[in-house]
């Protein structure tokens, strides 16, 4: 998962670090005013304060503090002065300049596009990264990788919408409307979701509201049958809104907890479909609207999602097929472009293959080691 995106990011890290390190090595040596120094200065209480702003160097700072105490006890002034001088001599410092990283960021934008990140998302990532990195002070090699990674982590968390407002409980029955293009995994995902709810002891019914695609009702019945969840259906060609209405009535009559609406996909550009979805929305008044899109779709993924968002203004996203060899970029692009959070990832064809997701988890995955 996220294989290519992660690889691109790793390469960018490496190049960026090398570039900054090179600049750091070229930087003139300077008086280490910020370095923790000898006890004479500690007495004046100045360097202690000044040490703090050179953040990111915690280990060095701590070590210096300990050493200082020890040295204070021993009162070997000469030695201390010498140590202070040595420290001063090796100190270098740079402030990252726009021109230092501009070519690398340009390359990085192209790499992101290759990893299926949509143009507007890639531009935003690079813009934010630039803002975060330019002007950053680097005082040691050790802080470089931390600085770059922190900037990217913050950037990704900023562009990935938070799922705060999305709740999976509230009404009884709680109605979940699922929309998305044909074949992207709606029906499979709905049954996975039903299983998750059932595992929590909830009672679920599914409305077979895709009355358009041949065999869609049988497919849903077969999958739902595996977990013993009831499907409410009409005939093919029937009004999907009527199916949803019946399913909700059924849930109310029996005190069920959840109704999930399995809608038709067809072409996302199909105007009739969008009308149909809006009608279902009016009739069913869903508590939660979820878009299901596959993470294989690359740049087209964003356009598809936007079209569905225009029609029903969905609340959250499930990206499926993340187990396939996806580049990863479309997952963050769909979330960024629609401003809606990714709530789950489909990671296989089995009914347990649905992973709950948060932006933090997503970023950990992207920046983490290979899975
Ligand atoms: N590998 C993989 N396949 C999936 C995933 N989700 C759905 N599929 C497969 O995608 C195909 C289309 O799924 P379906 O639920 O019928 O899509 P729908 O047309 O949107 O209802 C089926 O063969 C599913 O088994 C997933 O997360 N991983
Ligand atoms: Mg389906």
Write up what this structure looks like.
The protein is of the alpha/beta class and about 375 residues long. It is built from 15 helices and ten strands. An eight-stranded mixed beta sheet has the order 5-4-6-3-7-8-9-10, with helices on both faces. Helix 1 runs antiparallel to helix 6, helix 1 crosses helix 8 and helix 9 runs parallel beside helix 10. The longest helix is centred in the first third of the chain and has 24 residues. It binds guanosine-5'-diphosphate (GDP) and magnesium ion. Magnesium ion binds next to helix 9.
Brief write-up:
This protein has 371 residues and is of the alpha/beta class. About 8% of the residues have low confidence.
Distance between the termini: 7 Å
Series of secondary-structure elements, N-terminal to C-terminal: HHHHHEHHEHEHEHEHEHEHEHEEH
- Taking pLDDT < 50 over at least 5 consecutive residues as the criterion, the unreliable ranges are 37-64
Unique bound compounds: guanosine-5'-diphosphate, magnesium ion
**CATH architecture descriptor of the largest domain:** 3-Layer(aba) Sandwich
Cα-based radius of gyration, to the nearest Å: 28 Å
Total of helices: 15
If you average the pLDDT, what whole number results? 84
What share of residues are in beta strands? 5-15%
Structural class: alpha/beta
How would a textbook summarize the main sheet?
Answer: 8 strands, mixed
The overall number of domains is 3
The number of distinct β-strands equals: 10
Fill in the CATH topology of the largest domain. Answer: Rossmann fold
Strand order of the largest sheet: 5-4-6-3-7-8-9-10
CA-based shape:
elongated
């Amino acid at each position: 998962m996220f294989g290519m995106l992660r690889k691109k990011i790793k390469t960018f890290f490496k190049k960026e670090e090398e570039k900054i390190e090179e600049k750091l090595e070229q930087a003139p040596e300077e008086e280490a005013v910020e370095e923790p120094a000898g006890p004479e200065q500690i007495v004046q209480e100045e360097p202690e304060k000044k040490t703090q702003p050179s953040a990111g160097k915690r280990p060095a700072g701590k070590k210096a503090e300990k050493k200082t105490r020890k040295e204070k006890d021993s009162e070997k002034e000469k030695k201390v002065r010498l140590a202070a001088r040595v420290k001063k001599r090796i100190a270098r410092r740079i402030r990252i300049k726009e021109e230092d990283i501009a070519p690398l960021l340009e390359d990085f934008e192209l790499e992101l596009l290759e990893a299926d990140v949509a143009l507007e998302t890639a531009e935003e990532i690079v813009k934010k990264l630039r803002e975060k990195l330019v002007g950053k002070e680097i005082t040691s090699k050790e802080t470089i990788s931390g600085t770059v990674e922190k900037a990217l982590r913050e950037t990704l968390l900023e562009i990935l919408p938070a799922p705060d407002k999305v709740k999976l409980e509230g009404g009884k029955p709680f109605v979940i409307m699922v929309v998305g293009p044909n074949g992207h995994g709606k029906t499979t995902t709905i049954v996975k979701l039903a299983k998750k709810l059932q595992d929590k002891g909830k009672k679920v019914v599914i409305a077979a509201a895709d009355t358009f695609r041949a065999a869609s009702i049988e497919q849903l019945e077969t999958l739902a049958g595996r977990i013993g969840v009831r499907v409410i259906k009409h005939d093919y060609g029937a009004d999907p809104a009527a199916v949803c209405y019946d399913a909700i009535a059924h849930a109310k009559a029996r005190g069920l907890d959840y109704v999930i609406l399995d809608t038709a996909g067809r072409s996302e550009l199909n105007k009739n479909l969008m009308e149909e979805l809006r009608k279902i929305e009016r009739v069913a008044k869903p508590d939660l609207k979820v878009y299901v899109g596959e993470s294989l779709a690359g740049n087209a993924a964003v356009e598809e999602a936007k079209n569905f968002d225009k029609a029903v203004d969905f609340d959250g996203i499930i990206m499926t097929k993340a187990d396939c060899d996806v580049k990863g970029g479309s997952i963050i692009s769909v979330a960024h472009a629609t401003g809606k959070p990714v709530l789950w990832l489909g990671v296989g064809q089995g009914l347990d293959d649905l992973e709950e997701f948060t932006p933090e988890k997503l970023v950990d995955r992207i920046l983490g080691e290979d899975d």
